[in-house]
Design a protein that fits this description.
Number of helices: 7
Radius of gyration: 16 Å
Number of strands: 7
Distance between the termini: 39 Å
Length: 210
């Protein structure tokens, strides 16, 4: 079954505070945007992904995403991350009520289409969660067809999503589990192979990979 994805994204200047210092200060926003661009380039290459809705406070600041085949919508004025995801889900459900909706993080610069495809296959129409490599966070949450996504992102989200009935996927899915919050995370993603936008800004990772 095809899936529609909601991807939340802060303004690049404000995002990824724990990643500051990985590149020169004046390139931090460029790096945050590069993470998102590489994530979305991989996502939109997956045939089973029907729509990708990027929910953000400032759509006009993300013009670099326009050529990737995604839709940009302004997030609600308050409510935080989970409210933004529920809003995106509501918009997608208006178009396809019985469909599968997913929430995907925008910081997966090593993402490979095959890992996302395998996650969708393993989920097999169940509400499912992909836990990050540290075992505490969530990189992808999928609804069952026509059923609520029920996002519970934040610290310890993997346990909350599992407790609420989402099935943890068991396949290895290394690139889908490797979200980036710190430079250590970025180095790990580089060991898997960064997308071209991130690699151009983080040559240290390419040196490590060699």
């Amino acid at each position: 079954m095809d899936v529609d994805l909601v991807v939340p994204l802060k303004h690049p200047r404000a995002g990824k505070s724990r990643l500051r210092g990985a590149v020169a200060a004046h390139r931090h926003a460029d790096l945050v945007l590069a993470l998102a661009c590489d994530t979305l380039a991989a996502v939109t290459s997956v045939a089973r992904v029907r729509r990708v809705l990027v929910v953000t406070a400032e759509p006009a600041a993300l013009s670099d995403l326009a050529g990737l085949g995604v839709e940009l919508v302004p997030e609600p004025s308050d409510g935080g991350l989970n409210a933004a995801l529920r809003y995106g889900e509501q918009l997608l459900r208006a178009d396809a009520p019985p469909g599968v909706v997913g929430a995907l993080q925008a910081d997966l610069p090593a993402l490979r289409a095959v890992d996302l495809e395998q996650a969708l296959t393993e989920a097999a129409g169940r509400r499912a969660v992909v836990v990050d490599r540290q075992g505490t966070g969530t990189t992808l949450l999928l609804s069952a067809p026509g059923e609520p996504l029920d996002p519970q992102f934040g610290e310890g989200s993997a346990a909350r999503h599992t407790a609420s009935g989402a099935v943890p996927l068991k396949r290895e899915l290394p690139s889908l589990r490797s979200d980036v919050d710190t430079e250590d995370d970025l180095r790990h993603a580089a060991s898997l192979g960064l997308g071209k936008r991130t690699a151009a800004l983080y040559p240290a990772g390419q040196a490590q990979k060699r």
